[in-house]
Amino acid sequence: QVQLVESGGGLVQPGGSLRLSCVLSGRIFSDYTMGWYRQAPGKQREWVARTTSSGITNYADTVKGRFTISRDNAKNTLYLQMNSLKPEDTAVYYCNSAPSSVWSWGQGTQVTVSS
């Protein structure tokens, strides 16, 4: 059974930083391109960033230069380092395979950027 568990969210002031983590179980993590997605209140879920197993990365224009995606295949863990956070980054953040999300979504982790 596949399970995705996200963590690391919280409340942060504009300009602050957070590091999110996602652990995949039930599949061989290194077999998959993985991505981060987010869903803001009243909006559809959107793609944020993805990384291949070998570390090739792509970012949505809205986060390019501020967010960094990385992975540790030995730990089955995906990361998202978020710097220079803006109020419009407020959302529930999820991880899944990319570019298509093939597994059921986890519970996500809430990121709130507010002064």
**End-to-end separation:** 40 Å
Report the mean per-residue pLDDT as an integer.
97
Shape assignment: globular
Give the SSE order as H and E letters: EEEEEEEEEE
Query: Would you report the number of β strands?
Result: 10
Strand order of the largest sheet: 2-10-9-4-5-6
Query: What structural class results from the helix and strand content?
Result: mainly beta
The amount of beta strand, in percent, is over 45%
Q: What portion of residues is helical?
A: under 10%
| Rg of Cα set | 13 Å
Point out poorly predicted stretches. none
Total of helices: 0
Largest sheet: 6 strands, mixed
Report on this structure.
There is one protein chain. The protein has 115 residues and is mainly β. 0% of the residues lie in helices and 48% in strands. It is built from no helices and 10 strands. The strands form 2 sheets. Strands 2-10-9-4-5-6 form a 6-stranded mixed beta sheet, with no helix packed on it. It has a 4-stranded antiparallel beta sheet with strand order 1-3-8-7, with no helix packed on it. A hairpin with a 5-residue loop joins strand 5 and strand 6 (57-59). It is globular. The termini are far apart. The mean pLDDT is 97.
